[in-house]
Specification:
The chain is about 35% helix and about 15% strand. With about 300 residues, the protein is an alpha/beta fold. Helix 1 (about 10-20) runs parallel beside helix 12. It has helices spanning about 10-20, 30-40, 55-60, 80-85, 95-115, 115-125, 150-160, 175-180, 190-195, 215-220, 235-245, 285-300, and strands spanning about 1-5, 25, 45, 65-70, 90, 140-145, 165-170, 185, 195-200, 225-230, 250-255, 275. The chain has a 7-stranded parallel beta sheet with strand order 8-7-6-9-10-11-12, sandwiched between helices. Strands 2-1-3-4-5 form a 5-stranded parallel beta sheet. The chain has 2 domains: about 1-95 and about 285-300, Rossmann fold, CATH 3.40.50; about 95-275, NAD(P)-binding Rossmann-like Domain (Rossmann fold). It binds nicotinamide-adenine-dinucleotide and D-malate. Pathway: Amino-acid biosynthesis; L-serine biosynthesis; L-serine from 3-phospho-D-glycerate: step 1/3. GO terms for molecular function: phosphoglycerate dehydrogenase activity. It comes from Fusibacter paucivorans. It catalyses: (R)-2-hydroxyglutarate + NAD(+) = 2-oxoglutarate + NADH + H(+); (2R)-3-phosphoglycerate + NAD(+) = 3-phosphooxypyruvate + NADH + H(+).
Length: about 300
């Protein structure tokens, strides 16, 4: 069996796969052409979020049996194409939850206290304390869109900051809201009206793409702040840009961009934004968990075993 690791995973995962006796090739940052040229010989491919595993790739991947997604969302994998060819797709939905939740909170604090701009200011040998006045989180309302794994971790952690946490997730049972002591909001518009900070934690689907856009910003309190550590485009970037420019939105903290990995968004040019290059899962702990989990799942799937996250 031949496995192609096309995006970086932790050494622990690579080591595990190598000691199984499988043939493991690590080819990072291949051009699309080079990937299409070589994929035909592989039984499995492991990717993170950059490689598009789509019809074009499947057509060249005549031996492919398993796609390992080292991470959570599978929005870069065309599932129908895999299913109709009998290709198994595995991912690691739990392995980086803590890191993504913590990064969300880091972004929120950075945005509310202007930490990145203040850091850049003092490192340019200036000292003006009047430029960076922020806002507290205590007693503010945090609106969470998507109360799944990451959304619920953000909820409990932000309750300890004294925030009033509300959430919109029509797919989660009422008891889960009660268990988390989070107020259930039945309409997204109502969540937008009540929140001081809105953070999105849904998967990227046809339904959630642009779920927060111009109409939703019209409903917000003036000076709302928003966070997207889920997927680029869940908050419509053009509408967000407009809302930041006209002052409806006071700040935005973003880990994921619609057109990543090409940093061309106009949001990059605004002082009111704090932006990181998709670092939510980038901790030693999460990468070790993800690398080990995806390696084991790919190994088991290639052996025809039942895999939990297939
Ligand atoms: P999850 O599946 O556990 O939770 C997602 C929640 O969104 C579910 O409860 C679901 O019911 C809800 N949801 C779906 N559609 C909705 C809609 N239209 N309106 C409201 N709620 C809706 O997922 P998760 O593990 O919590 O991940 C959340 C997001 O974070 C995903 O987009 C994932 O890809 C992303 N993620 C990003 C990073 C990063 O590095 N920035 C790391 C891990 C995960
Ligand atoms: C994920 O979905 O797990 C994250 O976005 C992390 C990643 O893609 O590397």
């Amino acid at each position: 069996m031949k496995i192609l690791i096309a995006e970086h995973i932790a050494d622990e995962g690579i080591h595990f796969l190598k000691q199984t006796g499988f043939n493991v090739d690590i080819k990072l940052k291949l051009s699309r052409e080079a990937l299409l040229d070589c994929i035909g010989v592989y039984d499995a491919i492991i990717v993170r979020s950059v490689t598009k595993v789509n019809e074009e790739l499947y057509e060249h991947a005549t031996n492919l049996k398993v796609v390992g997604r080292a991470g959570n969302g599978v929005d870069n994998i065309e599932m129908d194409g895999a299913t109709k060819r009998g290709i198994i797709v595995v991912n690691t939905p739990d392995a980086n939850t803590v890191s993504a939740a913590e990064h969300t909170i880091g972004l929120m604090l950075s945005m509310c206290r202007n930490i990145p701009r203040a850091n850049a200011h003092i490192k340019s040998k200036q000292w003006d304390r009047t430029l960076f006045r922020g806002v507290e989180l205590m007693d503010k309302t945090l609106g969470i869109v998507g109360l799944g794994r990451i959304g619920s971790m953000v909820a409990t952690r932000m309750q300890s900051f004294g925030m009033n946490v509300i959430a919109y997730d029509p797919y989660i049972r009422r008891e889960r809201f009660d268990q988390l002591k989070v107020t259930r909001i039945d309409e997204l518009g109502e969540l937008m009206r009540q929140s001081d900070i809105v953070t999105v934690h849904t998967p990227k689907t046809k339904e959630t793409l642009g779920i927060i856009g111009a109409e939703e910003f019209k409903l917000c309190k003036k000076g709302v702040r928003v966070v997207n550590c889920a997927r680029g485009g869940i908050i419509d970037e053009a509408a967000l840009h407009e809302a930041l420019e006209n002052g409806t939105v006071a700040g935005a903290a973003i880990d994921v961009l619609k057109d990543e990995p090409h940093p061309i968004s106009p949001l990059l040019d605004l002082d009111q934004t704090v932006i990181t290059p998709h670092l939510g899962a980038d901790t030693y702990e999460a990468q070790k968990n993800v690398g080990e989990a995806v390696a084991l799942e790919v190994f088991e799937a290639l052996q025809g075993k039942l895999v939990a996250n297939a």
